[in-house]
TrEMBL record:
Key words, A-Z: Membrane, Transmembrane, Transmembrane helix
A GO cellular component entry from the record: plasma membrane
InterPro entries the record matches: DedA_domain, VTT_dom
Protein name per its UniProtKB record: DedA family protein
Parts of the chain that traverse the membrane: 12-32, 52-77, 138-159, 171-193
Annotated PANTHER family: ALKALINE PHOSPHATASE LIKE PROTEIN
Any Pfam family the entry gives: VTT_dom
Origin superkingdom: Bacteria
């Protein structure tokens, strides 16, 4: 799904579209979570939605969807994981999620946000492994906040180029995401300096 299609959908249904597209990511909708969050930023930049509410809709959509995965792991347990592992499309991702947790432990919650599909399976697997929800929420929700902010501002500042940047980030992970975050910080600082400079000139003009 392209940015243009998502843009029309979100323009029509607003905050609910952002929330449910991300919340339903747990069932495997063919829409990249990153692109939905970025499009929410783009719609906010165009003035169709309130910037704060658009971000919150995206953030709560992401963490609520991932939380469902955690509780499914707690309630349903290994039998469901065994059934999913038999599917050709999901089997490799489950193996990858399990290997990630075995290698990095709790830190896998951070890494999984950069890995499509894996990010939805890791909460399920860590819940089966006995991780408490309090610990899961502490690490996952904090990482989710940083992740959502990065892609929201990506859409807010870079608009229709967001889908190309996201496609690259899926191949190069941390490196590209780090570059994106650095660019966004630079843009924010630049805009802040411009605002301060204009405000200073306005004050000087009033004094004259």
């Amino acid at each position: 799904m392209s940015v243009d299609v998502l843009l029309q959908f979100i323009e029509q249904y607003g905050y609910l579209a952002i929330f449910f597209l991300l919340w339903l990511g747990i069932v495997g909708l063919p829409v990249p979570d990153e692109l939905v969050v970025a499009t929410g930023g783009l719609v906010a930049a165009l003035g169709y939605l309130n910037p704060y509410y658009a971000f919150l809709a995206g953030y709560f959509g992401v963490v609520s969807g991932l939380s469902i995965g955690f509780f499914l792991g707690r309630w349903v347990g290994p039998p469901m994981l065994t059934r999913l592992a038999k599917k050709k499309k999901l089997g490799p991702y489950i193996d990858r999620s399990t290997a990630l947790i075995q290698k990095y432990g709790t830190f896998s919650l951070f890494i999984s946000y950069l890995l499509p599909v894996v990010r939805h399976l890791v909460p399920y697997v860590v819940a089966i492994g006995g991780m408490t929800f309090r610990k899961y929420a502490l690490y996952s929700y904090t990482t989710g906040l940083v992740w959502a902010l990065a892609f929201y501002f990506l859409g807010y500042f870079f608009g229709n180029h967001a889908d190309h940047i996201i496609a690259v980030s899926r191949h190069y992970g941390f490196i590209t995401l780090g570059v994106v975050i650095a660019l966004i910080i630079c843009v924010i600082i630049f805009r802040y300096c411009c605002i301060k400079k204009r405000a200073k000139k306005a004050r000087e003009g009033d004094q004259k």
